[in-house]
Amino acid sequence: MKVNTETYSGHEETIKRMESVYLTKEPGETVVILEELDFTFTRSELAEIKRLWKKGVTLQEMTRKLYRNENELFLAVFHLTFQNRKNGTDGIALNLSQILGGRHEQN
To answer: What domain of life does the native source organism fall in (predicted)?
Structure first.
């Protein structure tokens, strides 16, 4: 399956470079996922996310306070949790009740 250049036209050159350097097994198979999300955070934003998370603020509440997409905030929390485990620093842990924020889906 080739990369759809209509959908990813702005990323075509970047994808080609990534494939040539990092992804050597299947050229033309790379897909950029979650490109609609903003993965950039300032250090102060991450510090605020960490502070709010430690206080028990839910992702839904953080979305309203920080004017960010809930998925972006989840990924920032995940990043901070990963950094904590990697560095052994005073960080945060994932908390399912904060992630769900009172939403309990039935299967």
So the answer is: Bacteria
Q: Please list, in sequence order, all residues whose beta carbon lies within 8 angstroms of the beta carbon of residue 89, skipping any fewer than 6 positions away.
A: 83
Q: Which two tokens stand for residue 7?
A: 């959908």
Q: Are residues 69 and 90 in the same domain?
A: yes
Domain of residue 51 covers: 43-100
CB of 101 within 8 A of CB of 59? yes
Copy the structure tokens of residue 57: 């603020």
Please name the residues in contact with 2: beta carbons below 8 A apart, sequence gap of 6 or more.
Answer: 28, 29
Check whether residue 49 and residue 27 sit in a common domain.
Answer: no
For range 88-103, the mean pLDDT: 71
65 pLDDT more than 90 = yes
* 19 and 48 co-located in one domain: no
Mean pLDDT on 13-26 = 72
Helix, strand, coil tally for the chain in percent (to 5):
50, 0, 50
- What sign does the CA torsion over 20, 26, 27, 29 have? negative
